[in-house]
Specification:
The complex is a heterodimer of chains A (about 140) and B (about 400). Chain A is mainly beta. In chain A, about 5% of the residues lie in helices and about 40% in strands. Chain A has one helix and eight strands. The longest helix of chain A is centred in the N-terminal third of the chain and has 8 residues. Chain B is of the alpha/beta class and about 400 residues long. Chain B has a domain of about 140 residues: 3-Layer(aba) Sandwich (Peroxisomal Thiolase, Chain A, domain 1), CATH 3.40.47.10. Chain B has a nine-stranded mixed β-sheet with strand order 3-2-4-7-1-8-11-10-9, sandwiched between helices. A two-stranded antiparallel ribbon of chain B has the order 5-6. The longest helix of chain B has 16 residues. The relative contact order of chain B is 0.19. The chains are: A mainly beta (about 140), B alpha/beta (about 400). The interface between A and B is large, with 44 and 45 residues.
């Protein structure tokens, strides 16, 4: 069963053993990607092994923060009461300069500005609870 | 029962083709069904499926179910067995989101062919419309997105699918009107289906003017939120024969594919794991998309249908929009799909939703669809999917003539 109270609170990331370094980086304004020392694969998000070759030799490197919008969808009806006051807002699928894609949201005021292949850059924004979120604005 | 050979070569391995048959199907009331718990809806459907098969509940020795959002039971199949008053010796509660329905049939067939069970009750029920508030029903579905890398950005369940459709529009020129046409065709089908949730006439303009949910999806591009359950009796082909079942529907092939969990790791936003899951099912069944007479295609959103018509091989990649526009997914077209009205207009009670596609395709193959009947339907396909195309499962069904 779902607890009705939960629907009114925005979910914040809860770092786990795999992801603590990542969220620490975001809180310091850096988007850390994992670079595999064995095969060169670059991955988002953080985990204990390389998804390409299973090596554990993964190195964190800060991404440039530059990317482009691979796809997007402007939300007019929020997924529950917690996001109602934010609509309309654009959820974006960003393709980072380094290759990996990630889900984020557009940090600009007007979501109708978002388009395919639009250049965007990282902005780490406080989200409450001592956490920041990696969002993107027009580059 | 099959004889298992000692050889490990796949060429000599027996597949599921034709080894099991569906001998009974049952459907609860669907749509707005207040005052019925998820278990009650499932039990109602199960009673009808047992009566349809002409067997008693104690002849069932296996139970497979989907999970239910509006039920407190984590082990829904176990709670359901207690509720129905049976003690099966094979059971599981499956959870691969919307794809669960087809996996239940595939796994039931494998369990029977492998000797784990003789007669499996496949069942699902949920009350998303009256058992949960609308906000909580939506939230319960978005909960299935990742809490760290997706949910904090306010991503509704519709959003992952919307981003795939949006990209499809950019890459192939698919239009909002073509998406809307999918909803219109489903409504036309539902208008001829007794008990369907939505039966008022619908036009392309109605869809385009229904208000935006998440671009490019308007309200009427999105499937319903419903109550309802469905159940099926699956047994061995031998037992179906011994029981004297008039028109058993055989499970001819099954396939699944899981390409990602997070939407940002989906290999391509416009080509899905349905390509692989259906290829496996076609290979096992020994047929191809051109041979299929009637299909149930998961229709959580209009664009989902267009992409699936392509990935299941009914038309070429990128041509799904014009295929729909040309009337190819309805009567008289290449592949009549979702003749009951689908999740868009018949009912969508969460994971049981795709069981309604099975109910329709099975009844099409049994010639029981009245004015909705697709003439001469012998070979059917149902494709279930979920979680932003993370999960895909296909089942191919056929009459005795297709064995």
């Amino acid at each position: 069963m779902i607890n009705p109270q939960d629907a009114h609170v925005k979910p914040l990331p809860m770092p786990d053993a795999d992801s603590q370094t990542f969220w620490k980086g975001i809180n310091q304004g850096e988007l850390l990607l994992q670079h595999c020392q064995a095969c060169g694969h670059v991955q988002y998000y953080q985990q204990a092994i390389c998804r390409a070759c299973s090596s554990e030799r993964l190195e964190h490197r800060a991404a440039s923060g530059r990317g482009k919008v691979h796809s997007f969808s402007v939300v007019h009806r929020a997924p529950g009461p917690a996001f109602k006051q934010d609509t309309p807002y654009a959820v974006i699928l960003v393709e980072l300069e380094e290759g990996p894609r990630m889900i984020s949201s557009f940090a600009g005021a007007d979501p109708s500005l978002v388009g395919f292949d639009m250049a965007v850059e990282l902005v780490c924004e406080p989200a409450g609870g001592g956490m920041a979120l990696p969002r993107f604005r027009a580059a | 029962m099959p004889t298992f050979r000692s050889s490990s070569s796949s060429s000599s391995r027996q597949t599921l083709r034709g080894q099991t048959a569906i001998i009974g199907a049952g459907l609860s009331a669907v749509g707005r069904v207040p005052g019925k718990s998820a278990l009650a809806l499932a039990a109602d459907a199960a009673d009808k499926a047992l009566a349809d098969a002409g067997i008693g509940k104690h002849e069932v020795d296996g139970v497979l179910s989907s999970a239910a959002f509006a039920s407190p039971f984590h082990r829904f199949s176990v709670a359901f067995s207690e509720y129905l008053g049976i003690q099966p010796t094979f059971s599981n509660t499956l959870q691969v989101s919307g794809a669960t329905a087809a996996t239940m049939f595939n796994i039931a067939a494998a369990a029977i062919a492998g000797g784990l069970s003789e007669t499996v009750l496949v069942v699902g029920g949920d009350s998303l419309l009256t058992g949960l508030s609308p906000d909580l029903a939506l939230r319960s579905m978005t909960e299935s997105r990742d809490q760290q890398y997706e949910m904090p950005f306010g991503i509704p369940v519709a959003n992952t699918f919307a981003m795939t459709a949006h990209r499809h529009m950019k890459e192939f020129g698919t239009t909002s009107e073509q998406l809307a046409k999918v909803a219109v065709i489903h409504r036309e089908h539902a208008r001829r289906t007794p008990g369907a949730q939505m039966t008022s006439p619908l036009t392309v303009d109605d869809v385009l003017n229904s208000g935006m949910v998440t671009t490019p999806y308007h309200k009427l591009d999105c499937s319903l939120i419903s109550d309802g359950g469905a159940a099926f009796i699956v047994t061995s082909a031998e037992r179906a024969k011994a029981l004297g079942i008039a028109k058993p529907v055989y499970i001819l092939g099954g396939g699944e594919c899981y390409t990602h969990e997070h939407i940002f790791l989906m290999p391509s936003l416009t080509t899905t794991g349905a390509v692989q899951s259906s290829a496996k099912a076609y290979a096992m069944a020994g047929c191809g998309p051109k041979d299929i007479d009637v299909a149930g295609v998961y229709d959580c959103f209009t664009g989902t249908v267009i992409m699936m018509l392509e990935d299941l091989g009914f038309c070429a990649k990128g041509e799904g929009g014009s295929f729909v526009d040309d009337g190819q997914m309805t009567y008289g077209g290449a592949i009549p799909c979702n003749t009951h009205g689908g999740l868009l207009s018949f009912a969508h009670s969460g994971m049981p939703g795709s069981l309604f596609h099975f109910y329709e395709v099975i009844n099409q193959l049994r010639g029981r669809c009245g004015e909705r009947q697709v003439a001469g339907a012998e070979l059917g396909l149902v494709h279930s999917l979920g979680a932003g195309f993370a999960t895909n499962a296909t089942t191919i069904l056929g009459t005795e003539a297709t064995l």
